[in-house]
Each structure stands twice: as structure tokens, then as C-alpha cells.
Amino acid sequence: MRDDTRHQYADVIRRPLLTEKGIKMLEEGKYLFEVAPKVSKIEIGQAIAALFGVTVVKVNTANPPVRRKRVGRFAGVKPTYKRAIVTLKEGDSIQLFPDS
Questions:
Q1: Containing domain of residue 67, as a range?
Q2: Can you give the pLDDT at residue 4?
Q3: Contact 9, 36 (CB under 8 A)
Q4: Where are the alpha helices (DSSP H) in the chain?
Q5: Percent of all residues in the chain with a pLDDT value above 70, rounded to a whole number
Q6: N or C, which terminus of the chain has less Cβ within 10 Å?
Q7: Calpha distance 94→96 (Å, rounded)
């Protein structure tokens, strides 16, 4: 794989989301990621497969609602993001916490 292709995949997947729900889903072989808002499920699956060397079975996406934020008299919104739940083939796993 060329380095520029790997760089493009790294732009698709922003970071793993380590929430309570996301950690519970790890036991089922499902991983939760924050992804770029404009990418499709197919692109997400290809990026995960290429970056981590695993087989992706299913990709579900969600756009959480906009959250309002107020600081003093100034009102605004938090930045939006897209969430992807990636199901891997049984036996495959992604090491989110590398050993030091």
C-alpha cells in the first residue's frame, strides 16, 4: 500500500470513541469511531480494513444531534461529528490500548 493511500484512510477515521457504551460494545466485536462527516459506510469499512488489517462485516453510522453551548451571554453550538459502529469478523480485533 502506498503512503498517500494510507494517509487518505487516516483522514477518514479521526479517532476511536472510548465511551461507556463503546467499551461495552468491544466485548461483542464492535468498535466505535469518530469519522469525517461526508464519508460513506463503504469508505469507512475500506479504511478500517486497510489501517488495521481486519475484515469488516458491517458498518452502522449515526449523526448525533447538535448540542447547544453557552458561555456567559454568548450562545453557540458544539462542533458536529459522525459516529461509526464497525462490526468485525469473529476472531478479528483491533488493539486500541497498545502495551507499553
A1: 3-88
A2: 58
A3: no
A4: 3-12, 20-26, 41-52
A5: 91
A6: C
A7: 6
